[in-house]
Amino acid sequence: MVWTTYAGFVRSSRRLRWRIGLPAVILIIAALSMAPSRGTVLPLRADGVTVEPGGAVATVPAASGAAFVPGTSVLSTEDRSDPAVTARIDDDRRWLADGDIPGHGTRYHAMSERALLDLRALTSPTGALMAAPITAWRHVWPRDASFAAAAYAVTGHDEEAADVLGFLARVAPADGQWEARYLADGSGPPDDRPQQLDSAGWVLWAVWLVSRTVEPDVAAEVLEELRPAVIASANAIVDSLGDDGLPEPSSDYWEKEETELTLGVAAPLSLGLRSALALAPLIGVEDPYVWTNAARRLDEAVEREFGAHGYPRTLPDGGADAAVTFLAPPFAPSTPDVSEAVRATELALRVPNGGHRPGEAWRKDVDVAWTPETALLALALAGNGDREDADRLLTFLDSYRTPLGSLPEKVDSEATPASVAPLAWTSSLVLLTLAELEKPLPVVPAAG
User: Fold this and answer.
1) Of the candidates 103, 146, 149, 116, the residue with the CA atom closest to the CA atom of residue 387
2) Where do the domains of the chain lie?
3) Which CATH architecture has domain 45-438?
4) What are the CA-CA distances from residue 139 to residues 50, 191, 198, 279, 373 (Å)?
5) Quick count: other Cβ atoms within 10 Å of Cβ 66?
6) If you average pLDDT over residues 209-224, what whole number do you get?
7) What does DSSP assign to residue 129?
8) Could you report the per-residue pLDDT of 278-331, keeping only the tens digit for each?
């Protein structure tokens, strides 16, 4: 029996109560309340972000009908006779020309160019990288900032990569226990949200990747400035490991309180320790034995516990999760088991509009695609050599940009851009994926 409305269900339940009993009716109501929500239509909260002639960043409202001056973040309605407007246009175009645009000359050129310009607009002169230009997203997540630094580095924007990591160095906790997010002025966290263990892993990876890809003089400055954060973060990861080699439960990229360890924490911490080991000789850590031993124990535990079940979100059967991508290139050397798990996860998490939800255990808005997860899968597929499938996911992301061309956080069940835009994490991931398709990104080596 199917009830189309709650009122209809109540009437039907009254008729059934004498047959199945009140307790059973209560269980049915509870089950319906826990059922996944499908067919969700969400608003688009912005078309994009613009940089005004004086340098101020402003959100462009949804359905604005606005357009950019080509190759810039300047709206076409600005007065082109104003020297400040001309200077801003020239500055944006010069900045793009000074770096690389992944996917140049392909159908993804426009998406790549806008992703770069959006990242630039979301990065303050202090290096604070806002996740998005709207309300609660106007903060700095260590994870998002780490990916932005990586994207800047692989596209030839060395100074911006160094600036973003410089902000992280200034807010870095002495004990290596990173907050989930920070105020853009660097004064601390915006609320009492629990700390997230995975942040340490992402920061360590970003420092390693940036040090490998920027000019030597910039790399030297980054390593000197980030040295204390690298050591503290690596030590914090070591301290988090239990006798079984796995870390304690923590919030991960789902940003929900967790009582069980997730792959979304274990995988980034594995990445972080391996990155710290690769950084050790560059920052003067002569005998990283403790890091080496911990990295081996953690990697063995992840393969033993998570790998045995196909790399689910939680053990033993938490369902497929996009976090499996954190075990694939460029985050780790390719293995047959992880490659197969990535392919299986891409299929399991696909929603009708062609994008992907975070995991099989994600129970809210299950027909809504999340662009970061879709882009993570695209990056992993590209890293594993599955170019055709990576291209399919990039095409999805390109198809559902906002009217201004920015990448939104979500694509709803009606296949329209939704939530905030631009989202820095997705912008960074798209740039990394396009760069990966042109030339494989450096892969963090296995623990020695």
Assistant:
1) 103
2) 45-438
3) Alpha/alpha barrel (1.50)
4) 18, 11, 17, 28, 20
5) 15
6) 98
7) B
8) 999 999 999 999 999 999 999 999 999 999 999 999 999 999 999 999 999 999
